[in-house]
Write a structure and sequence with these properties.
NDH-1 is composed of 14 different subunits. Subunits NuoA, H, J, K, L, M, N constitute the membrane sector of the complex. GO terms for molecular function: NADH dehydrogenase activity; oxidoreductase activity, acting on NAD(P)H, quinone or similar compound as acceptor; quinone binding. InterPro entries: NADH_UbQ_OxRdtase_su1/FPO, NADH_UbQ_OxRdtase_su1_CS. This protein has one domain (3-344). It is built from 12 helices and 2 strands; from the N terminus they run H-H-H-E-E-H-H-H-H-H-H-H-H-H. The chain has helices at residues 3-38, 54-64, 75-90, 119-140, 144-175, 180-185, 198-211, 223-226, 236-261, 270-274, 279-305, 313-344; strands at 102-104, 107-109. The longest helix has 36 residues, at 3-38. It is globular.
Length: 345
């Protein structure tokens, strides 16, 4: 095996892991600042200039707090739950193309951990596994509120994964590929998929809110009904892992939406820019554009949380089964008819 290949992949994985943790950490700061802005408050402003060190203070507090395991809990599963949630959240970044290839010492270095030809299926597999961390943690806590939260999370994820999968089928009919790198390559310049699949994007985005347990679909963590939900009995960094996993899931969901529907690292007039700079600089500009799109989606996640009230559970399930799934099926039929007509003429 080529040692340079191993070093490149190890470096990319390490950088992506660090970026995921930093973004998750400072998403907690951004969440509180966005909430403060929408509620005409200041938000964190004590730890460092403008409260910029608040996430570090919160992380230190998490590490220093006493770790408590309930006496009646299933000890090993209680510890496995947060780790599994964190693992499934992080591995979703492996198939996302973060930019065009860099040229280092005459070698083309792709800014993607792996370009598998079933990248979309891989993402859905990771998403479906993530709920196991919540289910195991809720059940192992031996707490009725945590157990009810785990049941809610499982049924919510199953319901909205169906609509999410159907919304993607219409996109795959257009692109004829499951590779995320090829899907991004087809959106060169302004040819973003959201222009051709607006309904599919809306369905996918709504399902992303439900899959990440974000408001107004945060029924598994509903404080007014379930105290804290599946992590009621957790403390110290086990609780921190669950909270970090939620924000990393939000980051990955934003990256997936930007990749599938908003061109990924593509942007208007990118060929003109590339003609005036070196290939590596052009690739890094594309990566910067992708992260701008991701941060815009993260802001939207936060804006919705502090704007729209939480759904009732029956409203949540009705929206998934009676509205989103029929709309997704209709979108597949319409897309198929349009493609057939275009190919015929």
């Amino acid at each position: 095996m080529d040692i340079n290949f191993v070093i490149e992949k190890f470096a990319l994985v390490t950088i992506l892991f660090a970026i995921s943790l930093v973004i998750a950490m400072y998403s907690t700061y951004a969440e509180r600042k966005v909430a403060a802005f929408l509620q005409d408050r200041l938000g964190p402003d004590r730890a460092g200039p403008f409260g910029i060190l608040q996430p570090l203070a919160d992380g230190l507090k998490m590490f220093m707090k006493e770790e408590i395991i309930p006496s009646n809990a299933s000890k090993w599963l209680f510890m496995v739950g947060p780790g599994l949630a964190m693992l499934c959240a992080c591995i979703g970044t492996a198939v996302i193309p973060w930019g065009q290839d860099l040229t280092i010492n005459g070698r083309a270095v792709p800014l993607q951990v792996t370009d598998i030809n079933v990248g979309v299926l891989y993402l859905f597999g990771v998403v479906s596994l993530g709920v196991y961390g919540v289910m195991i943690g809720g059940w192992a806590s031996n707490n009725k509120y945590s157990l009810l939260s785990a049941i809610r999370a499982a049924s919510q994820n199953i319901s909205y994964e169906v609509a999410m999968g159907l919304s993607i089928i219409a996109l795959l009919l257009m692109t004829n590929t499951l590779s995320l790198k090829e899907i991004v390559a087809q959106q060169h310049g302004w040819h973003w998929n959201v222009l051709y699949q607006p309904l599919g994007f809306i369905i996918f985005m709504v399902c992303s809110f439900a899959e990440t347990n974000r408001a107004p679909f945060d029924l598994p963590e509903c404080e007014t009904e379930l105290i804290g939900g599946y992590h009621t009995e957790y403390s110290s960094m086990k609780l921190g892992f669950y909270l970090f996993a939620e924000y990393i899931n939000m980051f990955v969901s934003s990256a997936v939406m930007a990749t599938l529907y908003f061109g990924g690292y593509n942007y208007p007039w990118m060929d003109t820019v590339a003609a005036h700079v070196s290939p590596n600089v052009a690739a890094l500009i594309g990566t910067g554009v992708l992260f701008i799109k991701i941060f815009a989606f993260i802001f939207f996640f936060m804006w919705v949380r502090w704007t729209i009230p939480r759904f009732r559970y029956d409203q949540l399930m009705n929206l998934g089964w009676k509205t989103l799934i029929p709309l997704a099926i209709a979108n597949i039929i319409i897309t198929g008819i349009v493609i057939a007509v275009v190919n015929k003429f």
